[in-house]
From TrEMBL:
InterPro entries: Cwc2/Slt11, Cwc2_RRM, Nucleotide-bd_a/b_plait_sf, RBD_domain_sf, RRM_dom, Torus, Znf_CCCH, Znf_CCCH_sf. This is Pre-mRNA-splicing factor CWC2. Belongs to the RRM CWC2 family. It comes from the Eukaryota. One of its GO terms (cellular component) is Prp19 complex. A zinc finger (C3H1-type) spans 92-114. It comes from Amanita muscaria (strain Koide BX008). Residues 92-114 form the C3H1-type domain.
Length: 358
């Protein structure tokens, strides 16, 4: 896709329409039996209800991919409370996304859009609790990869009836329903658009919600994951974004004392003077050059399997407590030279995130 001609980038962030604040019990989107069970041609060995297709082959079969979806999710009317709001289940209902959940308020999964800032309990699953894979499928369909955070969808088979700008408007109007869009690119005369969401979770939801749906012209869309943006500037930006996100996620789940201790240790390592509140005096972390940033990430941190539910392993916690203690006793004496922090960030394995070039 190197020869893509980009139409002007849509710069403002597009907010999706907010669902009503006081949620009512979710409505049943379909009455059981209402949706015709179109017989899917068997192309694999077993029928996978999650994908609504036969499993065993690596490509989405041509038939199921070209039949228009009979149902579509209407966020405003379909969003509501389900059993998941009581049980604490954090994943969305796949059938809600496709507009065909017959359970409504009795559903065990959420009938709301995934919240962008909401970190799911297990990053190896998508927002529907399906396992991601190490690699993308050849056709970039399916659940996607846990090795790369992908926020961009490829939208194919668009029927263009106007200019690039008009098509862009249509694409935005349909795709903003599922989450806040960061940018949209339309490849005019090629029936293709790329939609990048602010959140990966919105992308996952939109991919299911828009699969085999139509825009304004009764087409049947082909929605896939986009391959990686080859633009080096985008790569650097993406790397930085992921690191910022990781740091925020870690800090939000950590004891503030430990965050302070980490800041202090980092400052000691770098010989930066702290002000009274232990904030790094002038050169804040934000302005660090990119290559210095993964400081807290260990070489080989990826080798440590993340423990579900805990970001810091016991050793790291002990280490941090120990250093906070020492610091209390010795004031800010810079006697700590050893790097003890590495494992602290291993839970998110940020080290290699932005660089999967193969
Ligand atoms: Zn449901």
């Amino acid at each position: 896709m190197d020869d893509e001609i980009e139409t002007p980038v849509y710069s403002p962030i597009l907010q999706y329409p907010q669902p009503p604040k006081n949620l009512k019990p979710a409505r049943k989107q379909v009455i059981p039996g209402q949706v015709n069970k179109t017989e899917t041609v068997q192309t694999g060995k077993e029928y996978n209800i999650w994908y609504n297709k036969w499993a065993g082959g690596d490509r989405e079969d041509n038939y199921s991919n070209k039949v228009k979806s009979q149902t579509r999710c209407h966020v405003r009317t379909d969003t509501g409370l389900t059993r998941a709001d009581i049980t604490g289940m954090k994943y969305c209902c796949l059938f809600f996304a496709r507009g065909c959940c017959p359970y409504g308020f009795e559903c065990e999964y959420l009938h709301v859009l995934p919240e962008p800032g909401n970190v799911k309990p297990d990053s190896s699953k998508d927002c529907f609790a399906r396992d991601k894979f190490a690699d993308y499928r050849d056709d970039m369909g399916g659940v996607g990869s846990f090795n790369r955070q992908n926020r961009t969808l490829y939208i194919g088979r668009i029927k263009e009836t106007g200019t690039g700008a008009e098509t862009e408007e249509v694409v935005i109007r349909h795709f903003r329903e599922w989450g806040t869009i960061e940018r949209v690119r339309v490849l005019q005369y090629r029936s293709v658009a790329f939609v990048t969401y602010v959140s990966e979770l919105s992308g996952q939801f939109a991919k299911e919600a828009m699969a085999c749906q139509s825009l304004d012209n009764d087409e049947i869309l082909n929605v896939r994951w986009a391959t990686e943006d080859p633009n080096p500037v985008q790569k650097v930006l993406e790397k930085r974004r992921l690191e910022d996100m990781g740091r925020e996620a870690i800090q939000s789940r950590m004891d503030p004392k430990i965050v302070d201790a980490m800041k202090a240790i980092k400052a000691l390592e770098e010989g930066v003077v702290l002000d009274e509140d232990e904030n790094v005096a002038q050169e804040d972390i934000e302005d660090e050059p990119v290559n210095k940033r993964p400081r807290l990430t260990a070489e080989g941190a990826e080798a440590v399997p993340p423990k579900p539910g805990s970001i810091l392993n016991a050793d790291a916690l002990e280490g941090l407590k120990y250093f906070t203690e020492i610091r209390k006793r010795n004031g800010a004496a810079p006697l700590i030279q050893k790097r003890v922090l590495p494992s602290a960030t291993s839970g998110l394995a940020l080290g290699d995130y932005g660089s999967d070039e193969d």
